[in-house]
Hints:
The chain is an all-alpha fold. The protein folds into 2 domains: 1-87, no CATH class; 91-182, no CATH class. Helix content is 78%, strand content 0%. The protein contains 6 helices and no strands. Helix 2 packs across helix 3. The longest helix has 33 residues, at 92-124. The chain is globular and about 50 Å long. The two termini are 29 Å apart. The mean pLDDT is 91.
Amino acid sequence: MLGSVLQYVLGIVFGFFGAVLLLRAWLYYWALSPRHPLCELTRKITDWLVAPLSKALKPKGGIDWASVVAAFFTAIIAVLLHRTLGQLPATPVGLLIAPFAMLLRWALEMISWGAIIWAVLSWVNRGHPMTYTLEMLLNPFLAPIRRVLPTFRGIDFSPLVLIVITNALLMLVVPLSRGFILL
Length: 183
């Protein structure tokens, strides 16, 4: 029982931290101002790990490699802790694929939550600066859906479709992120 609670809490902590690391890399890619509140928040949470790595791993091609590598190491630790605390068997292929699947899981969860937050903000306060930021960050995922799905009487259903798609993909990715691969 205590092991399950600890596993649950560590899953939330590692999931949140990993998603913030990926968000930091995504914000860097979009070249948001370092003074943007979202950039400041991600830096405050992750600088203790990313700052030392950034001395050796310089950004290149619009990618903040220090944040990406930090997220990958966080995924490795999360997978190993999950397998150890859960006393679950692990296959070598499962342990090899699980950290990559964990990164994808965190990215999908971040996109899903971002779409939920953006939809609520756009209903409540369309002029809020964070609404614009979230729309900009989510637009690469929303634009293809908007091309296929027209608005209905001024209502944009693309965030809802994005949430459904990301959660369907999560059903496939979550078992892989836990190392459940039958090989």
